[in-house]
Amino acid sequence: MAARIIFNPTAGNGKARQLMESIQGLLPDDVEVVTTQYPGHAVELAREVAENEEMTVISLGGDGTHHEVINGLMPTAKATFAVLPAGTGNDFVRMLGYPTNPAEMLQIALMGPTRRLDVGRVNDQYFLTVSGVGFDAEVAGWVNRHEKHGNGTWVFLRAILKHLAQYRSQPVTVTVDGASREHMTFLIAVGNSRYYAGGMLMCPEAGLDNGLFHVIWVRQLSRLAVLPLLARVFRGSHVKHPAVETFLAAELTVTGPQHLLVHADGEIIGHLPATFSIVPEAIRVRVGRPV
């Protein structure tokens, strides 16, 4: 089976280049490597082969690169999808069971078993991990504008600390199954998978193949309450906090102040309003072990 590796050389502050160097000599003859040249290029490169059922499209980069590739493959996604993780957060691959050894990782990406997995959609963008509104979107926007030195967790924590003093909760309305509620809101996270921001277990009940989002709605918080709550996110115990509501949904709409950013897979994709919907079993993905 032929494969195309979509390689983002800027991903992971050098990690992507290192990974490519380590696997270069291991690539079979029927594997094509194409290099992204500008933001959005991975979408175009994936779209060129999205209709090829015999093709495996491998995203070599971070979650932002994977986000672009999946938006190139969707909505038809006849090609098989795989990843070679080399970014800041590497959150999508956490649920795929890939090995960490580059040679073994490549073997899974090329020949591993496949599973049909869900893809999320927010407005006109598709996403793999988590999409959301509020504080985390502001943090994601800052991270994407700055150099990502260090591991993913510390990069995001630095951005969190920077925004704590200035961010204010906003009035946000959530509509599910025709019923609407409004609350002052710190953030809303809509999870297709469990992790974001370099390993934060934001949506612990999310599954990549259950046809539902795990939605986390964090109401207004005092500044002193934010850091203790965020510390609980790494264990997934934040869901028990009195300011946190969780629920499962296949579709929801979020409205509020139009200046509020919306992120998907850590990439800023626009502003409110936002409609989120799950696309069940949308894409065939190579996995290392059961997800």
Automatic annotation (TrEMBL):
Gene3D superfamilies linked to this entry: 2.60.200.40, Probable inorganic polyphosphate/atp-NAD kinase, domain 1
Cofactor(s) for this UniProt protein: Mg(2+)
Keyword RNA-binding: no
Magnesium keyword on record: yes
Signal sequence bounds: none
Domain DAGKc residue range list: 1-126
GO cellular component, one term: plasma membrane
Keywords: ATP-binding, Kinase, Lipid biosynthesis, Lipid metabolism, Magnesium, Metal-binding, Nucleotide-binding, Phospholipid biosynthesis, Phospholipid metabolism, Transferase
GO BP, sorted A to Z: phospholipid biosynthetic process
Classification via Pfam families: DAGK_cat (PF00781), YegS_C (PF19279)
Gene Ontology molecular-function annotations: ATP binding; kinase activity; metal ion binding
Entry's family note: Belongs to the diacylglycerol/lipid kinase family.
Name of the protein in its database record: DAGKc domain-containing protein
Organism: Sulfobacillus acidophilus (strain ATCC 700253 / DSM 10332 / NAL)
Organism phylogeny: Bacteria, Bacillati, Bacillota, Clostridia, Eubacteriales
